[in-house]
């Protein structure tokens, strides 16, 4: 039994960002150390200074109330854009669950709850970037995200319009 909570602990978001960024199980290649990744601007922008206006996050908890996944969004200025940047007023989504919890429907649960929250908050659209070979891409397509522009370097920016003016 899993449940979604409106809590969004920044330290757990760092762990989930790490899982989102380094999702491939390459077998032999080691992932970078989390602290090394946290020092990189391309990585840190998604969690650093969490709690600024517009930051919205959810966590999924297991039956022991331990977090096993998170989904969140935040906006970026054009001069510090994330990988899936579309516009300064369209938040970019990040989402991950622990590898051992993948395939249980938790990503769908999290993303659905995050989309509902964005709609309730009047957000006009959400965006994200996903590797073309990431299985999560199917989740985004099922959830209504559409490709935005040409794929770049093996990744695709996707957008989910939430209002008619998006």
How would you describe this structure in keywords?
single chain; 166 residues; alpha+beta; Aminopeptidase; four-stranded antiparallel sheet; three-stranded antiparallel sheet; 5 helices; globular
Molecular structure report:
- The protein has 166 residues and is of the alpha+beta class.
- The chain has helices spanning 10-21, 34-38, 41-44, 106-120, 136-142, and strands at 3-5, 56-61, 67-74, 92-97, 125-131, 146-147, 155-161.
- It has one domain: Aminopeptidase (3-Layer(aba) Sandwich).
- It contains five helices and seven strands; from the N terminus they run βαααβββαβαββ.
- Strands 1-2-3-4 form a four-stranded antiparallel beta sheet, sandwiched between helices. Strands 5-7-6 form a three-stranded antiparallel beta sheet, with helices on one face.
- The longest helix is centred in the last third of the chain and has 15 residues, at 106-120.
């Amino acid at each position: 039994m899993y449940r979604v909570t409106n809590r969004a602990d920044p330290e757990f978001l760092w762990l989930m960002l790490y899982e989102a960024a380094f999702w491939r199980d390459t077998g032999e290649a080691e992932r970078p150390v989390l602290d090394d990744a946290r020092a990189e601007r391309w990585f840190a922008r998604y969690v650093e200074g969490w709690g600024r206006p517009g930051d919205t996050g959810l966590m999924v908890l297991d039956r022991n109330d331990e977090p096993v996944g998170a989904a969140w969004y935040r906006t970026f200025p054009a001069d510090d854009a994330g990988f899936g940047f579309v516009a300064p007023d369209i938040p970019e989504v990040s989402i991950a669950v622990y590898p051992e919890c993948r395939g249980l429907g938790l990503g769908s649960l999290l993303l659905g709850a995050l989309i509902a929250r964005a709609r309730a908050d009047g957000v006009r659209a959400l965006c994200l970037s996903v590797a073309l070979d990431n299985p999560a891409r199917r989740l985004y397509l099922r959830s209504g995200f559409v490709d935005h522009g040409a794929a770049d370097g093996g990744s695709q920016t996707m957008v989910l319009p939430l209002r008619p003016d998006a």
